[in-house]
Design brief:
The protein is of the alpha/beta class. It is built from 14 helices and twelve strands. Helix 4 runs parallel beside helix 7, helix 5 crosses helix 7 and helix 7 packs parallel to helix 8.
């Protein structure tokens, strides 16, 4: 059994618009270690969510996957490549929600307002497993309790609008985990929540990942969350991967200028009379917009830099 559950290579996504073609992803590549948390970080528009949608094969027109591949190695199954799957391939149906599940940023976009939360969690089971509705309802109740929803006999028959934002996000997490997926993708799942609820949801995701042993792809622009949850960090900017390393390597000793700028722009208190740091004040556009291939450094991390800067990094 390989220690890598997903290998993404040279992934490219284009969006055709009235003004021309936008290259949302360009040669994106990284590995996801099995049973670990991989975080993708970067500012808004860097391609984090598009990467997740590619893995799930849910890119919608006018977007299209223009190239690359994603080699997936689920336990107990033969490995297969996701990008090349045909629209009618049964593995594609099993992939979405069964082998790979996703927790979206806004729970109300993932929940139907006209069905009870119990029906929606049970439906996820019925779509991917051959069990009766009674058994699916029982397992849905167990998973809802597992994610911290109490008074289950009453709440399982309630509708999403009767839940708070944090409780709705717990329902979405239950839906994503009820089929015990190999990979759980979390696309900024706490952005729309207040700070105290954010901490509860992050702790819940971390505890369930340790308990279930699945692999997590966590998309965020919150460096504090990365430090708390991640084992590996992928730094993206303008659809490209600029640096990959362990959480300690990337946060404690960043190599790429953009990573340094991203860390320097963490909100904080500036000395009186001095402006807050932004990415633009730390790193220039020419340092981060020119494409260079990822090169592996002696310490195992990967970075996209010109040759003269790589020599300074110890290559």
């Amino acid at each position: 059994m390989t220690d890598t559950v997903l290998k993404v290579r040279e992934l490219a996504v284009d969006f055709k618009t009235d003004l021309g073609t936008t290259h949302a992803l360009v040669d994106v590549g990284f590995d996801m270690p099995r049973g670990k948390v991989t975080a993708i970080v970067g500012e808004s528009g860097s391609g984090k969510s598009v990467t997740a949608h590619c893995i799930m094969r849910i890119i919608q027109p006018p977007g299209r996957i223009a190239g690359g591949k994603s080699d997936f190695a689920p336990q107990g199954m033969d490995p297969f490549e996701i990008v090349s799957l045909g629209k009618r391939d049964p593995r594609l149906r099993e992939l979405r929600g069964g082998l790979i599940s996703m927790v979206f940023q806004e729970p109300m976009t993932a929940l139907s307002p006209v069905y009870t939360v119990g029906n929606q969690v049970a439906e996820a089971i019925l779509c991917h497993r051959k069990v009766g509705r009674k058994q699916a309802w029982k397992e849905a109740a167990e998973m809802l309790e597992r994610v911290g929803i109490d008074d289950i006999d009453r709440r399982i028959r309630m509708y999403p609008f009767e839940f708070s934002g944090g409780m709705r996000q717990r329902v979405v997490i239950a839906m994503a985990l009820v089929c015990y997926p190999e990979i759980l993708i979390c696309d900024e799942p706490t952005t729309a929540l207040d700070v105290t609820i954010q901490a509860e949801i992050l702790t819940l995701i971390q505890d369930l990942q340790h308990e279930l042993g699945n692999s997590v792809l966590f998309i965020t622009h919150d460096i504090g969350v990365v430090a708390q949850l991640a084992d590996q960090v992928v730094v993206m900017y303008q659809g490209r991967v600029l640096e990959i390393g362990t959480v300690r390597q990337v946060l404690k000793d960043p190599v790429h200028p953009y990573t340094k700028g991203l860390l320097a722009a963490i909100p904080g208190l500036a000395p009186k009379g001095e402006p807050l740091a932004t990415i633009a004040t730390v790193v220039g556009d020419t340092d981060i917009t020119r494409p260079y291939p990822l090169v592996t450094l002696p310490d195992g991390r990967q970075v996209s830099l010109p040759r003269d800067q790589l020599q300074g990094a110890g290559v």
